[in-house]
Amino acid sequence: MSAAAEPGVTSDLLECIQKCALLESDCVFRRILDCQSDAIFILDGETPPKIVDCNCAEIEMLGYQPAELVGRSMEFLYLSESADCPASGATRSPGLPANQYERYKMRKDGSVFPIEQGISMLDIAEGQPAGWVAVVSDRTERSRFEQELCNRTYELERRLNELNCLYGLSQISESPGKSTDEVFTGAMKSLAAT
Known about the structure:
By secondary structure, the protein is of the alpha+beta class. It has 3 domains: 1-35; 37-138, 2-Layer Sandwich (Beta-Lactamase); 147-193. Helices cover 45% and strands 20% of the residues. The strands form 2 sheets. Strands 2-1-7-4-3 form a 5-stranded antiparallel β-sheet. The longest helix has 34 residues, at 140-173. The protein is rod-shaped. The N and C termini lie far apart (99 Å). The model is unreliable at 1-5 and 81-89 (pLDDT under 50).
C-alpha cells in the first residue's frame, strides 16, 4: 500500500520525525547549557520571574538540586539588605554593562560568596518578556585576588613612606652646622609627615 492511500501514516511519520528533531535539539541545548562553568538560570516572564531551568554549574556553585529551584524566584538566593554584609544589595561596578550586577549569594549550606550576574531578556511576547536568562559567575577567587592586591599596594605604600622618611632623615643629618636638637626636630617632622 502506498502512503497516499493511508494519510494517517504520513502524518504519524511526520509527527515522529518532528518529535525526534525536537528531542535532538533539546539534547544539544542541554549539553551546551551544562558544559558552561557559570551558573545559568532560565526564568519565565512572570513578575517576579521564576526559575524554569538551570545548568549543572548551579549545583556545584550553590549546592541545590534543580528540582529545589524550579518554580522559585531567584531572590531567595540573595542576601537581604538587613543581612550582616555591607554589599548585600545589587551594585553596578564601573565598567560593567547595564545588565550586570555584583551581589552576594547564599549557598544551600548558608555560606555567602560574591557573584557577578548578567541578565538578558528573551524574546518579547505581547509587550512582555517571554523570559530571562541569568548568568551567574562566582567572584570568590577574583575577590581574593583584589584583596591581596590591596594588601600588597598598602604594604608598598607603607614601605615607600618609610624610605622617604629615611631619605629625609639622611638629608637632615648630613646638613652641615645642624645641632642634634635640630636634627631630632627635623626627624620628628619627617616621621609625622609619613
